[in-house]
Amino acid sequence: MLENCTQRLLREAGCDEAGRGCLAGAVFAAAVILPPDFSHPLLNDSKQMTRRQRDLLRTIIEREAVAWAVESVTAGRIDEINILNASFEAMTLAVAKLDPAPEFLAIDGNRFRTTLTIPYTCIVRGDGRYANIAAASVLAKTHRDAYMERLAADYPAYGWERNKGYPTREHRLAVRSHGITPYHRLSFNHELGQLALF
């Protein structure tokens, strides 16, 4: 069972992102403030959960959270400021939408930059340790997956409903055959045989 949050003196939001390593699509981030007594046996790092579990937890989190928000940063913006800064920007946008506002942030990862004045801590693999970060990972992942599935209807050749824009062989072969779309990140390497950035 995950710990609810990193500390209990201040109202804390967990933050995480989804889609950093993709070749196409926006990067999404979520911020979640959970009730102090919130727990669920299925809640975990979203990458360790099945799609069915994530969809179930998304409904529960959105219903029971004190506050939650999901924001995204486009592929064009990613190309302008790089994927790391775009991830920070998406998290900042999500946190800024929370009502009530958090007094402390728990960030998944080893670093964070923001224009916000809220104190924060970074936790490597925090989505596997703290429920509020895990909840943010579930929301970021499920909202991004739904977004990529909507795009897939307009760009069926790329298999985004299956690969969600990640650099799978299928996706790279589609880029080779059909070129890139307006949703591809131009600063990423789309060539077959190249390693993903992350």
Considering the chains and any ligands shown, give keywords for the structure.
about 200 residues; 5 strands; disordered C terminus; single chain; alpha/beta; Nucleotidyltransferase, domain 5
Helices and strands, in order, run as EEHEHHEEHHH
CATH class: Alpha Beta
| SS summary, helix count | 6
Low-pLDDT stretches: 194-198
Q: CATH H level: which superfamily?
A: Ribonuclease H-like superfamily/Ribonuclease H
Structural summary, described in words:
The chain is α/β, with parallel strands linked by helices and 198 residues long. The chain has one domain (12-178): Ribonuclease H-like superfamily/Ribonuclease H (Nucleotidyltransferase, domain 5, 2-Layer Sandwich), CATH 3.30.420. It is built from six helices and five strands. It has helices spanning 51-64, 75-81, 83-96, 131-154, 160-163, 169-178; strands spanning 12-18, 27-33, 67-73, 104-108, 120-123. The protein has a five-stranded mixed beta sheet with strand order 3-2-1-4-5, with helices on both faces. The two termini are 28 Å apart. Residues 194-198 have low confidence and may be disordered.
